[in-house]
Structures are given as structure tokens and as C-alpha cells.
Fold this protein.
Amino acid sequence: MSHISGQGQHRSMSSNGNHIALIVAFVVALAVALGLGVWFAAMHNDSTDVSRPGTSTVADTSLDKSGSVPQPVAEHHGNSPDCPDTDCIAMLVNGDLLFHESLWNGFRGANTSATDGTAFNFDPLFEPMKQYIQASDIAVCNFETPVAQRGGPYSAYPIFNIPPEVADAARNVGYNACTHATNHSWDQGSDGIARLWDTLEADGIAQTGSYKTEEDSLKPLVIDSPTGGGKLGLVAGTVSINGMTADHDWQIDRLREQGDPHHDSDIQRAVDKANKAREQGADVVAIALHSVQEYIDYADSWQVSEAHELADTGAFDVIYGAGCHCAQPIEQYNGTWIIYGLGNAVTENAITPETMVNNQGVTARVQFAGKKGVKESWRVNRIDWLPTANQHQGNYQWCPISSDHPIGTCWTEVKDAQVRQRISDVIYAMGADQNVVKEWNITQEQAQQTAQ
């Protein structure tokens, strides 16, 4: 009985073993089939465009290749019409905001003593500039003078204290930043500097040139391009404060002439600020120079010597100036572009033959091209210049004197043509390359962009 039982037990165990083997084989075969299915699906997905809307995909974490797929490089071409590199920053600059009483009275409100921002409305004065600012990335103004407290009192030449609503209009037209190291920076002393600083800050406008605190004076101004192209460092300096002396030398950025005991330290201070700006991520650095020899159509000896000395340091990508109330040449020196004089952006009328250039200006758009965050890749690849008038058909308003007449003639057809030709002759008087330095025709530019 036991033998038979033993055989029966052996058969039972053998049968169970066969069943287990069959089950194992089936499981292995199923696993292989599933593996082949997953492999086929993955291969199929790799060969199709899985990014199309409506395409169904199966997540396969075991074959996740996202880490090895290179991401496309983001490009920031900015608002200007072309960009020959990965990134571009187009900086718009123009001359002095120079307000006399006859200019600000044309924009007064019902109550010029109002402290709520309604004492004056200068928006119409700046309005035609808006389309040019919108065709740039960063727009920089130059405040020639300090501002009064809201409601006044106000004063004009020779000791200025202008309506603070000018800053409100600068914000409204689109300026991102302003410089204010000028010969009138100390007209109202420390209080005037503080009022201008606080007014621009309240309007959200970045600034440099004169300072409330020594700590502020040591900080470089670095501006992020709103279009993502990179960072612009901005430095400023004035040769004069009209014979006055600030309480502290740090309160106003200076660039005193050769022979002055402060000359070398002024240059070094500007270079140090440029270097600090680059340490803080600036891809390019511009410096604004403020001169005092007025109503000339050439660069004076201080402008040339100072600009060349700054260019020789290699710390600056572009140098530009104001203060002479006149349009002046553009020059490339030692690899650095220099715009010597931008004249006035807005001002009252001068009426004598010797001072008529006061009523004219230049708006320039400087385009820097390179690769964001990559040193030595940046250069100025174009400078667009636009001659401007301080009046439009007899009323005070910033007015482009352009061949395309975007808002019509400024004065008359004949006078506009004469002034435009005169400024053109001045711009190229120092040999600027016309392949880089070009007259700005915004209508043609907009048409080309639309066609693209």
C-alpha cells in the first residue's frame, strides 16, 4: 500500500511540477511580449511628432530621454528692426529736458499750486516721441535741472526749479531711466537733488548722476532690458556745476577737465562704476557726458579729450553727450562709438541767429548685439539718428524732422529740409560709417517689419 501510495505521491508531485513549469514559461513569454510591445510603442513614438496638438502619447518612464535632448536657445531680438546675433538691446537717448517758464506755462493746469500732479500736464509735449520709444528697448532721458516740490515755487534760468510733473510725463511717454549729472545739478543744493531723486523714484524711473546718499553714489545703475535681451549699465558725469561747490564730492558724478586735480580720480570713478556694473551682470555699459560750451556744431576740446580717454579704458561700449544745446558729430574712436551732442529734447525757443541750434536736437537709437551673459560677444551694430525740432506747427511739442513726416512738417517744408540737411552734415563730419550710422525713418521701418 505504501509503495502504491508512494508512486501516487510521486506522480502528483511530478504533475504539479509540470504545471509550475508551464506557468513560469507562460509568465516569461508574457513578460517578453509586453516588453516587445513597450519597445515597439517607444520606437513608434520616437519617430512621430509628439508635440502636435491632439496627438496621444503613452508615458514611458523607463525610456525617459528628456534629459539628453538639447533645449532650444532662447533669443531676444528686442524691438528694433533687426538683430544680427542671439540677443540685442536697443537704447534710445536724446538731449536735455530744458524747461524755461515760457515752456512750462503752455502746459499749466487750472491751479499751478496743486500738489496732486495736476498743476501741469506735459504729456502732449512728449506724445509724438512714444512710437520711437516703443521701437526701442530702453529709453533714457537727461534731466538738465532739479525739480520743485509739488505746487512750487518754480524758477527758471539761471537757478532752475522746474515743475515736477515733467517727470510724470517722462514716465508716461515710456522713459525707463534718466541721468542727471549736469551743470545745473546743484542749483537747489542737496534739497534739489533729493527732490529729483524722490520724484523719479516715485514715477518708477531708474536714475543715476546725482545722489541723496553716499551709498547710492557708489551703486552702478544696471537696467534689465524689458524685452529680455540683456542688461545695460549706465554711468554719467558733468564737467561743471557752474562754479558752485557741492557739500560732498560724491553728490554729483563729475568728469572734470585735464589739469584739474580731480580729473584722474573722476575718470577712475567712472571706470570703477562701469566695472561694478559688469560684475552685477551688465552686458554693455554706456556713459553720458554733460558739457557746457554751447551752440557749436563740433566737439569741443574737453569733449574730445574726455571721450577719447574714457574710450581708451575699454570700459564703455558707447559714449554720448548733451549740455551744449546743439547737435554734434558721431565718431568711432579706438573701437568705441561716441555721440558728442544730442542737443535738446524739449526746450523753449531761442531767437537769435547764434542760438537757433538750441531749438533742434537728435534722438538716437543705439543697438547692441551679442549673447546674453557672454563677455566679449557684444558690439554696437547700428546707430539710428533722428533730427528733431522743439515745435510742431507753432506749438511746443517734440517733433521728428524726418523724410517720412510721421506727424507732418515741424516748421515748414523748406525750414525742415534745411535743418535736416544741416544736422546730417554735422553727424557725419567726423567720418562716421554710414553703414552703421543711419538716418531713422520709422515709417519705412514699420512697413518692413509688417512685410516680414
Q: What stands out?
A: The radius of gyration is 33 Å.
